[in-house]
From TrEMBL:
SUPFAM superfamilies: Phosphoenolpyruvate/pyruvate domain. Keywords: Lyase, Metal-binding. Residues 19-243 form the HpcH/HpaI aldolase/citrate lyase domain. This is 4-hydroxy-2-oxoheptanedioate aldolase.
Length: 257
């Protein structure tokens, strides 16, 4: 685990933070991943059936696991109610998908800040210890939360410099699959135009003094994408880890029958 730097201070990282993606809706899996020693566990509510109740249990599991893994939740969308309900669960960071404009980024910040700077409603939830520490929670909420937005289209990359400059946005995330799909270069990771867009996004983040990361699901991808100059990386997906480990065990066993 990278020492002394977490998601809320991602721009200060001297070495990239390494996390993993959690898509299986189960607290035991979350606890297992956190206990391995990842800097963070990224939970997905955009493409999975994970409910708010299950997400709460998964976040508790990360906190209960040995080590200091943090939690990042990719929300389903940028709706203020979605953001509010997710923040009430108390994750370290949120990742908002499909952000393409400055206006979207500004709305995300406003919806996730308490008044007078924003319009987030205050609830008696896990983030405030169910109301036991309301004053402390309101006072520290801004400093204890990191907001990341996902660039997944050419339009998003075109606006990356302005999105990165929005006050309250702490990091960008290049969604390589959807970005390549939007460019009609699906899965062509060596395409020159694709890599130019990646470089533009990375430069935009670093020029604004914020972090940027991406997903890599194989050893070859991890090596290549760390060379992009990212500040954090999601090193694989739990379901893929499970499938690959199971397939390797099956193949090895059959080879020795």
């Amino acid at each position: 685990m990278t020492e002394n730097v977490g998601l809320t201070r991602i721009a200060e990282a001297t070495d990239p933070l390494v996390g993993t993606w959690a898509t299986i809706p189960d607290a035991s899996t979350a606890e297992l991943l956190a206990g391995i020693g990842y800097d963070f566990v990224a939970f997905d509510q955009e493409h999975t059936p994970v409910s708010y109740g299950t997400m709460g249990d998964m976040l508790r599991a990360v906190d209960a696991a040995p080590g200091e893994s943090e939690s990042l939740v990719r929300v389903a969308d940028d709706d203020p109610t979605t953001l509010k309900r997710t923040l009430d669960l108390g994750p370290t960071a949120i990742l908002v998908p499909m952000v393409e404009t400055v206006e979207q980024a500004e709305d995300i910040v406003e919806a996730s800040r308490y008044p007078p700077e924003g319009r987030r409603g205050l609830g008696l939830a896990r983030a405030s210890e169910y109301g036991r520490s309301l004053s402390d929670h309101v006072e520290t909420a801004e400093d204890s939360l990191a907001r990341f937005v996902q660039l997944e289209s050419e339009r998003a990359v075109e606006n990356a410099e302005d999105i990165a400059a929005v006050d309250g946005i702490d990091g960008l995330f290049v969604g390589p699959v959807d970005l390549s799909l939007s460019m009609d270069r699906f899965g062509d990771w060596d395409d020159e135009d694709f890599l130019e867009n990646v470089t533009r996004a990375v430069d935009a983040a670093h020029d604004a003094g914020i972090g940027i990361g991406t997903l890599a699901t194989s050893a070859a991808q991890r090596e290549a994408r760390l060379d992009w100059g990212v500040d954090y990386i999601v090193a694989g997906v739990d379901a893929m880890h499970l499938a690959e480990g199971a397939a390797d065990a099956l193949d090895h066993s059959r080879d020795h029958l």
